[in-house]
# Entry
Amino acid sequence: METTKYSQCEMCSARCPIEVTLQDGTVSTIFGNPNVGSIGTRLCAKGAGAKWFLYDTEKPTRPQIRVGPRGSGQWRDASWDEAYSYVAERLTSIKEKYGPESILVGWRGSLNNEFVKAFTRGLGSPNDFTHNSVCPLSLHTACQATLGVGRKALGFDIENAEYVVLYGRNIFESLTVAEVNQLMTAMDNGVKIVTVDPRASKTAVRSYYWVKIRPGTDWAFNLALMNEIMKNRLYDENFVNNWVKDFDALRRYVEPYTPEWAETETHVEASTIRKLAREFGEAKPKVIFHIGWFAARYVNEFHMRRSMLFLNALMGSYETEGGLFFKKGLADTGRKGMKELPSTIEAPKGDRFDCIGPGKKFPIVDKSQGIAHMLAEAAETEKPYPVKALMIYRFDPLYSTPDTKRLIRALDKFDLLVAIDVNWSNTAWYADVVLPETHFLERGDPIQERKGLKPILALRKKVVEPLLDTRPAWRIFKELADRMGFGDKFFYKDIDDYNKWKLSDTGIDISQFDEKGVVNLAKDKIYYDRQTGLKFKTPSKKIEVISSKMEDNGLESLPPYESVKVPEGKLRLIIGRNPLYTQGSMSNNKYIKEVLWDHPIWMNKDAAAKLGIKTGDKVNVHNEIGSGVATAYTTDGIHPEAVFIPHGFGKRAGAQKLAFGVGLADSELQGVVSDYIGGSAAMQECFVKIEKI
Ligand SMILES: Nc1nc2c(c(=O)[nH]1)N[C@H]1C(S)=C(S)[C@@H](COP(=O)(O)OP(=O)(O)OC[C@H]3O[C@@H](n4cnc5c(=O)[nH]c(N)nc54)[C@H](O)[C@@H]3O)O[C@H]1N2
Ligand SMILES: Nc1nc2c(c(=O)[nH]1)N[C@H]1C(S)=C(S)[C@@H](COP(=O)(O)OP(=O)(O)OC[C@H]3O[C@@H](n4cnc5c(=O)[nH]c(N)nc54)[C@H](O)[C@@H]3O)O[C@H]1N2
Ligand code: SF4
Ligand SMILES: [Mo]
# Structure
């Protein structure tokens, strides 16, 4: 018998709404949910790989307790009861001996955030942290310091834009289906894509203009663009007068940064910068300087992202058709918000492990995000206190944060490592206990509010019964909390009960999801009034060139640009995603592996020739942090200072037979360097030597 069910994909964090067809209870096809306009209707290759992942047998099939040394891969099966007792007893004794703050809980943002946060609060630890410091943290910090809101408050009306400027934002490969659809529609409408990238990505080659920039110099490029736009009064005066605080300070600041100055620094011709500035000025406000996503690249990332926010302000492109917009949610449709479990539990106070806070190394970083790559330093220095237990949910810090060897040494100082994962991550493989979560098609999760111009609520429902002895997050955290003596804080019976509680103030009933899997909250697009109604949440309620938040914390809002340098004889390792892998978590998928087994290292043809290297040669890639072997691919399509590999290869969990050891892991070559203000790991402050083997 054929049945159709609606859910959400979780092969990456875009969570595309899906329609799953079952034949006699077995998944036959997964497509996009046709009821959701442009964000539905299609899946990417990774989404299609979900079916293989469901029936994959190389993942943990029941709770595992380590019996050999850490990382040896020697495990024994355990019942849930035994695994919970093992974790709860050790957490309790660590808490008694070292205090709750010695327990760290790291997680990648997901629909289950609320259970992880509530659990950490229940433990009494101030130390939960997300994966964001190795993704968009600097961008987020820049948005908060400049606009008073986080990066997620903004969306992009790409379909109606005239120009979309992408700084490495590789929409066609580092993709979400919705954004790809939007950009393709925009291309049909005649949009001009300008891609700034040292490398000919698949987005760069489909662009109107590919700006082959010298890696790490986007800030200089933007300073010169602003110089040209301001000098020639190409900006939106009305918008600037209304919404930009200290505009004159910005004008004075960019004066020395002429296109000629930028040409030397960025290797982009001054005439190109002038031409683009003029074209943007003519097309405004329908110009989007896409603020991007994965900001974890350079030490000056924070200022680079701020310059993008300023450029959008000069174009007047906030809250306009074809520009950026504030995402709208339940509150904008006259409803009350959904309830969240953590808000019912008091947040623990006290110093954090990651040096966030006034007077600390990262005074303006959002502590609700945390800084994952400070793990090693915290364990090494034992400052402000020793850290002893690490619980990880849906995150693989041992693969996703820089300097694997250093982190392993640091993890060895922990008394307890617990991983809650659907698969064998590198971190799970190194843990003491693995609690396997059920595949996303086998479980329900909390309702998601998908904010946008036309917001919706989306619900993940169980599509098939679990095949293995796994449990969903709502149950794992509830049952662990029970064992730890704070089960009363997890008061719901099951996920349906929890979701009904979440909706209880909204006026929406859970049965409304039955028909389409989603509830549409608005018929028409919602815009705020551009003259009076924009929701910047800075103290001045404007876009702050001189940022109150920065100045209050002793940080200079407009510091001088510092020239970028590459050490003699070395090349900069730049990174990115590829369309078939999701970070580190797709490399053992049989469907995906059939299409892309390994990936070569891209080198500039001339730079490679100087080293006697040509396409197909095996090369040794090394530096003071680590080394590895790759196959060279030489091309004109990359700046001579750079070499490129995508993240996702060189995995180390022995149980993953397809992925194990295939390819080069960038995290084994990167040192721990931070953007000194934004808090992100500056992963591309990484230089390597390459030799032919
Ligand atoms: N298929 C797939 N899609 C994904 C993901 C995935 O894993 N797989 N992950 C999702 C996630 S978590 C994220 S954060 C996003 C990331 O998406 P993007 O922000 O688009 O990032 P990346 O793919 O990391 O890098 C994109 C480009 O940045 C370029 N680049 C390197 N150095 C510089 C530089 O100095 N200046 C400029 N301008 N460009 C530079 C690289 O050459 C690369 O082409 O993708 C999301 N989508
Ligand atoms: N060196 C280097 N480091 C990087 C990057 C890079 O390019 N180079 N990219 C950075 C970026 S942009 C990001 S976003 C991060 C990503 O880093 P992570 O957040 O660590 O992402 P993944 O590598 O996808 O690992 C996520 C883990 O979650 C598990 N998982 C997936 N679905 C579920 C689920 O439903 N439940 C549970 N419990 N687990 C699940 C997967 O099996 C996997 O082990 O890495 C960052 N780190
Ligand atoms: S972009 Fe692809 S992998 Fe990510 S949620 Fe959508 S279909 Fe799934
Ligand atoms: Mo990311």
